[in-house]
Specification:
The complex is a heterodimer of chains A (about 270) and B (about 260). Chain A has about 270 residues and is α+β, with helices and mostly antiparallel strands. Chain A contains 13 helices and four strands. Chain B has about 260 residues and is an alpha+beta fold. Chain B is built from eleven helices and four strands, in the order βαβαββααααααααα. In chain B, helix 4 crosses helix 6. Chain B starts with a strand and ends in a 22-residue tail after the last helix. Classes of the chains: A alpha+beta (about 270), B alpha+beta (about 260).
């Protein structure tokens, strides 16, 4: 038992950010898996901790912290261990800038694909339409109700998906260009921006095989493999329970050639 | 090291950053630019434009250091604080998390709403009056496709009822959040003065004229706005105005959340 509990889903996207940050810091914590596809995050016992019903959340003693990137910043400041923020103020600015860009502009586009092709269909398959409609009614935040409805019932418009596809294309090119400038995303030191970015990008060679591979994004591939080799990353991804987390194993391949976009869609976890 | 802060009229994110600069004690050259003429997109000597081109905040201030364009008002303010007097962020990790969460509620919810309503009230007429070729030249310089679309929407007067009503709600929520936060008698939003005060004031100051109902009966929020406005760093920022009413200066800002 520790006085830190992290409530998380798969090591992926938002849940994976504080999981990996804690492991990089060497902070022991109690892991509490929230099965998002089983709507654990909207059950009374979880809403008692985070009334907004969003994942992840972390308790530290009597404190409750939410929002994945902000939790990571708290973890870095509150605990001993390697500093995951650079010391130079301009480098710190760059870490923050990239995290906001990924959190607000790029990641929502990735997750629109993830929700349309994975979260929505799997939740519908597991629960059936009637039960799922009742579950959606229980969601506290109106924007999350909208997102679940759209994902489960396939209501993302063609224009929305096209815009998300455009942003993914632009964002991958931006990441590649940035990683051509330096070893890590935002500074010469491994930082929260890399922890954040890995959670967004680790499965890109599978989900976006035409945009991200050793031919067109060599710097992204170098960066992803370097993060995958870190002991904390290995430990973190062991906490995954679904095929989603096992996608990370693609980074064991030394060379990933370009593949058709259709193969990414067929992988089912785009 | 060549450093210059390009800022719009002291309103919104430009006001927040100018105030943070004043508190930092740093001596940095400031250059006013006309955000509504798109001048931000043609700044000289920018060799690392990615943050200027793709920043989520839209038309806000740009701090250029050695050719690198730095954007996002909260993060520029954090930079100025950390490079300077280091007084505007809590040292305790939890208090710092609270300040960051507050700033995110402002930048993610209130700021897109304020920019949307502010542009409707103050930017649409000027852009609609531009001739086609001048507007095309302006938008051709904008790298971000979605930011360019927001400019086109402001010029066209594309302010649908749904987002208008939602934006009024979000501004009202922000004012209420300020008023509630001050209920225990604290002087500033986080207790001590922080970046959260300047960021919040910057986005809300221009809303008193646009959404007056949001401020009705919110006496604590009103008194806090007076305190922020009276701060020497804010007065110095306001003294940089080139128009009599900088609170009415708006340009396309952050987008309204695509997920609804």
């Amino acid at each position: 038992m520790t006085d830190i509990t992290l409530y998380h889903w798969e090591p992926n996207a938002n849940s994976g950010k504080p999981m990996l940050a804690l492991m990089e810091k060497g902070v022991k914590f109690d892991s509490h898996y929230i099965d998002m596809l089983n709507f654990d995050q909207h059950k009374p016992e979880y809403l008692a901790i985070n009334p907004q019903g969003t994942i992840p959340a972390m308790t530290h003693g009597s404190r409750v912290l939410v929002e994945s990137t902000a939790i990571m910043e708290y973890v870095n400041e509150a605990f001993d261990g390697p500093d995951l923020m650079p010391a130079d103020p301009r480098d710190r600015w760059r870490v923050r800038w990239w995290m906001k860009f990924m959190d607000q502009w790029l990641a929502p586009s990735f997750s629109m694909f993830g929700w349309k092709f994975f979260v929505g269909p799997n939740a519908l398959k597991a629960h059936g339409q009637e039960k799922i409609e009742a579950q959606i009614e229980q969601i506290p935040l109106p924007e999350r109700r909208t997102a679940w409805r759209k994902a489960v019932f396939g209501l993302f418009s063609e224009a929305e998906m096209a815009e998300s596809g455009r942003r993914i294309d632009v964002g991958i090119k931006m990441l590649e260009a940035e990683l051509a400038k330096r070893e890590w995303l935002a500074s010469d030191q491994y930082s929260l921006a890399d922890v954040n970015g890995f959670n967004l990008a680790y499965a890109m060679p599978l989900s976006q095989p035409h945009l991200s591979n050793d031919e067109v994004t060599p710097n992204i591939m170098r960066w992803l493999r370097a993060i995958y080799r870190r002991p904390a990353t290995r430990e973190c991804w062991k906490l995954g329970r679904t095929p989603m987390a096992s996608r990370v194993e693609i980074l064991e391949q030394d060379y990933i050639p370009p593949r058709d976009e259709a193969e990414g869609i067929a992988s089912g976890v785009r | 090291m060549a450093t210059i802060l390009y800022h719009g009229e002291p309103n919104g994110p430009s006001l927040a950053v100018l105030a943070a600069l004043g508190e930092s004690g740093l001596d940095i050259a400031c250059q006013p630019i006309d955000l509504l003429k798109g001048e931000r997109h043609t700044l000289p000597q920018v060799t690392e434009p990615v943050a200027r081109d793709m920043g989520v905040e839209g038309e806000g201030p740009v701090l250029v250091i050695d050719g690198e364009a730095m954007t996002e008002s909260v993060f520029i303010a954090q930079y100025l604080d950390e490079a300077g007097a280091n007084t505007l962020q809590p040292k305790d990790a939890h208090a710092h998390w609270q300040m960051l969460m507050w700033c995110r509620r402002i930048t993610e919810r209130a700021a897109p709403a304020a920019a949307f309503l502010g542009c409707q009230a103050s930017a649409h007429d000027a852009l609609a009056a531009m001739d086609e070729a001048d507007f095309a030249a302006l938008t051709d310089a904008i790298a971000s496709e979605d930011l360019r679309h927001r400019w086109v929407a402001v010029r066209a007067g594309d302010f649908p009822e749904g987002p208008c009503a939602d934006s009024v709600t979000k501004v009202s929520d922000a004012v209420k959040m300020v008023d509630d936060q001050l209920a225990d008698g604290r002087e500033w939003l986080m207790g001590p003065l922080t970046i959260a005060d300047f960021e919040t004031y910057g986005w809300l100051a221009g809303m008193t004229a646009v959404v007056p109902d949001a401020f009705a009966g919110k006496d604590r929020a009103a008194a806090w706005m007076e305190r922020v406005r009276a701060r020497p760093s804010v007065q110095a920022a306001l003294a940089r105005a080139t128009m009599s009413n900088p609170e009415a200066s708006w340009a396309p800002g952050p987008e309204i959340n695509r997920w609804g």
